[in-house]
Amino acid sequence: MDKANTIDEVIKFSADKLSFDMLDSCIVKFNEFAKEHEIDPKTTSVSCIIIDEVVNNIISYSGAKNFEMRMVLEDGKVYFIFRDNGTKYDPTVDAIEEAKQHQNDGKPGGYGASIICTLADTTYKYEDGYNVLETHIK
Amino acid sequence: MEIEVKNEGALTTFIITGRIDTMTAPDLENAISTDIQDLTMDFSNVNYISSAGLRVLLLAQKKIKGALKIAHPNNVVLDIFKLTGLDQALTIED
To answer: B33, CA 20 to 30 Å: which among A88, A117, B15, B47?
Structure first.
């Protein structure tokens, strides 16, 4: 990897119960990152959607006490690495199930994982007690 | 997110500015009353919508008495509607 073309920032949170203030902080921090590095409006919006879906899931369902979001701009492309120590959860598998479910029912809610995996090339691994989700904006 | 409300006969129009996501979707949900007949949401100034916002749109369709229309979404929002299949479930006006 050519580090000269890579810009990397990390934001970390620790708490007994992660709150939605954390989500707001992540969105604000990314918007500052996007403005500073002149990321185009469409990529910025898509990135904010990804952050909203991922972080909302972690706050609402994971029970994590530690979370970090790494924002990377590499050769003009944006990607994120999200790490949390909550319940083991692979959204790339869940997205397939959601897609099947929503083909027919049209019920509200539950689109999050599908949106993440459609807007970004997404890989998941569970490492040292942490969910690690890497999302490359398409 | 800001919502400007206009009433004209049976039609209520929400002119929405900003993002519709986990943090702001509850405000949009609260603005939707069961008294509303027809509702148009003007999305000209909406940057993006996440799944929390999609949920509110689907609930709005059930909550109001008449028809819901989404007007002038940008390409990011339109892509979200398409990839979730909601472009078929919602009335969207370019």
So the answer is: B47
Task: Give me the CATH number covering residue B55.
Answer: 3.30.750.24
pLDDT digits (tens, 9 = 90+) for B32-51: 999 999 999 999 999 999 99
Q: Label residue A1 by pLDDT band (50, 70, 90).
A: very low
Query: At CB < 8 Å, which residues of chain A contact B?
Result: 20, 23-24, 27, 41-42, 45-46, 48-49, 52-53, 56, 102-103, 106-112, 114-115, 118-119
**Prediction pTM value:** 0.90
Closest CA to B48 of A19, A4, A3, A34: A34
Interior CA angle at B78 toward A61 and A83, to 5°?
30
Distances (CA, A) of A123 to A28, B18, B88: 25, 30, 29
Note whether A53 contacts B51, CB cutoff 8 Å: yes
Chain B residues whose beta carbon lies within 8 Å of the beta carbon of residue A41? 47
* Domain count for chain B: 1
Chain A residues inside the 8 Å CB shell of B29: none
Q: Which of B70, B47, B86, B83 is nearest to A113 (CA)?
A: B83
For residue range A52-84, list pLDDT tens digits in order.
Answer: 999 999 999 999 999 999 999 999 999 999 999
Chain A contact for B1 (CB, 8 A cutoff): no
Mean pLDDT, residues A36-63 taken together = 95
Query: What CATH architecture is A3-137?
Result: 2-Layer Sandwich (3.30)
ipTM (interface pTM): 0.87
